[in-house]
Design brief:
heterodimer, A: 290 residues, mainly alpha, 10 helices, 0% strand, B: 276 residues, alpha/beta, Rossmann fold, 23% strand, globular
């Protein structure tokens, strides 16, 4: 029985076939590697099953279209939103540009402010002790309830929406960045100090580079959080945006358009997620091999 | 190559830590040592006896929140030394290579720091880095990342990074302890070669009696906690030391002597190993 199994990127043992595994171990074995084909089939199968169920309950009229529109109605609404031939415009394209713009602006703010603050907190227990009571509790704050406050403070313009997205996500980002810095083994800091680095140089040249992949993870989480808040951010006085599009459709009880809008937001959130994962992989190719 | 003169002295070092129930745990109990010439000095002792603490003290790595040393002084060239020192560089068992930098940039790491940039001109340090990478036998790997190297090769990178600064004192904290036997042998050979070419004062912490006899010009044996110097003797046999010498009556007597001294104060934690 071979005992030295090759480890894959996640540090799990490779194929466990070498260890005498009975067929019964196929289930409830967290370490078993599923063939890619099985993974895909199970995933696609689940989505198709839900679509079929959806089509059946709406097609037979068991659930009314004002509660749950049929898939084809959603598709039709999607087509209409994508291109309104009557008015020669694309509501969806316009709304998407606005929402993406807001997420980008808030994302830039989060990166420009949240990362430095998190790094300082991770690098200095003093800064952390000072700031963590001001940051950590807001992770469990009802961010949606902040909206009226944001309106009072920043009005109902564009800044309010961007700052709301920023506030909602930065409270997740800062603690994650701090923990990323603190997760770097102390030996790197000591080694750099011994070579003559100033404390800040040791942070900058020995600790921070190792924390970068996890900091990138924090950014990915923060941006994902923003996509979940976009509808709330665009609740007040938005004339454009995906969230506004959904709000508007809801007001006219156009459930098909509500569904189409939600699907588009999910699609964009997934797209940004995978795009950022890809960028992270390009920036830190060594990360999975440490 | 003539070696730079150096003097490193430990004077009546005592180290205590706050123990449980308000007591005081004395780890090092009055250790005085003087190193005044280049050579490989083996600091041998059971694990947990405080030999790493002593080495860190010499390297200027002090724990936070505890006065180190509790009493006594570390003197370099006769001057008391409290922090990191230009002429003293440490190599750890955990080699702490930057995973995002290739071999060349890892060896050149100290020159990212203002301290060394100010002192060494760019052309010179680049030439030194190149030469040192060749010296540790990584010439073919200079553009590889640490993840593409073996444990021994990574430790070679760490060794090169330390020696590229041309320290007069090299402190090694069980540097080969995590390597497999064959790689450890290769690294020991490399250290002997490098020391032959660039002699400096090496203080090498180990809990391996065989390694101490293989490498040391001088062997210092520490007792179990609280550590005192239990023995301190020289080995005159020139390096590289053959397997025949290691089996000779002289070597066997030394080994028995070390083991005897280590066991003379039993009851403490830890133990030593003998690998042959």
């Amino acid at each position: 029985m071979p005992c030295a199994e090759p480890l894959d990127a996640r540090g799990r043992a490779g194929s466990l076939t070498g260890i005498a595994m009975a067929a019964a171990d196929k289930h409830w074995n967290p370490y078993a590697l599923l063939p890619a084909r099985t993974t895909r089939m199970l995933g696609v199968g689940a989505v198709v099953t839900v679509l079929v169920l959806w089509a059946v309950v709406t097609g037979f009229g068991w659930i009314g279209p004002n509660k749950l529109p049929a898939p084809w109605q959603v598709a039709k609404a999607f087509a209409y939103l994508a291109w309104d031939g009557e008015n020669q415009r694309s509501l969806l394209w316009n709304a998407t540009l606005w929402s993406v713009g807001r997420v980008l602006a808030a994302g830039a703010l989060v990166i420009a402010i949240g990362i430095p603050v998190g790094v300082l907190m991770g690098a200095s227990p003093r800064v952390n002790a000072t700031l963590s009571p001001l940051v950590d509790p807001f992770r469990s704050a009802p961010v949606v309830a902040l909206l009226p406050i944001m309106v009072m403070w920043f009005g109902i313009g564009e800044w309010m929406k961007i700052l709301f997205l920023y506030a909602g996500s930065v409270v997740y980002l800062i603690p994650m960045v701090r923990d990323a810095v603190r997760a770097v083994p102390q030996s790197y800091w000591i080694g750099a100090r011994d070579l003559g680095a100033t404390p800040w140089e040791a942070v900058r040249h020995a600790v921070l580079p190792l924390a970068m992949p996890r900091i990138a993870d924090a950014v990915i989480v923060a941006v994902s959080v923003m996509w979940t808040y976009i509808t709330v951010a665009e609740y007040v006085n938005a004339r454009e945006g995906l969230g506004q599009l959904i709000q508007n459709a809801r007001r006219f009880s156009a459930m098909d358009q509500v569904f189409a809008g939600i699907i588009v937001i999910i699609a964009f959130a997934l797209l940004t997620y995978h795009f950022m994962r890809w960028i992270k992989g390009r920036l830190y190719p060594w990360e999975t091999r440490v | 190559m003539t070696a730079a003169t150096v003097s490193l002295e430990l004077r009546e070092i005592v180290q205590e830590y706050p123990g449980r129930e308000g007591g005081v745990l004395r780890v090092i109990n009055g250790v005085s040592l003087h190193f005044d010439r280049p050579g490989i000095n083996m600091l041998l002792g059971p694990s947990g006896c405080g030999k790493s603490t002593l080495l860190h003290m010499m390297g200027g790595v002090r724990p936070i929140g505890v006065k180190t040393p509790t009493a006594g002084e570390v003197l370099i060239d006769g001057t008391p030394c409290h922090g990191a020192h230009d002429d003293v560089v440490m190599v750890f068992q955990r080699y702490a290579n930057r995973p995002d930098l290739d071999v060349w940039n890892n060896v050149a790491f100290p020159f990212r720091l203002a301290h060394w940039r100010k002192r060494v001109p760019e052309a010179e340090w680049k030439a030194r880095v190149d030469a040192m990478i060749d010296a540790v036998g990584l010439g073919a790997h200079r553009h590889h990342l640490p993840s593409q190297l073996s444990g021994g090769q990574n430790q070679r990178v760490a060794l090169a990074r330390a020696l590229v600064l041309r320290p007069r004192v090299l402190l090694m904290d069980e540097p080969f302890g995590a390597l497999d036997a064959q790689t450890r042998g290769e690294m020991q050979t490399l250290l002997v070669e490098l020391h032959e070419r660039h002699p400096c004062l090496v203080i090498f912490v180990t809990h391996d009696v065989t390694e101490a006899l293989l490498l040391g010009d001088r062997v210092i044996v520490l007792s179990t906690q609280p550590a005192v110097v239990a023995d301190d003797f020289s080995i005159l046999e020139p390096r590289p030391r053959s397997a025949a010498w290691q089996r000779s009556s002289e070597a066997v007597r030394m080994e028995e002597r070390i083991l005897d001294r280590l066991h003379s104060r039993s009851g403490g934690p830890g133990s030593v190993v003998v690998t042959i």
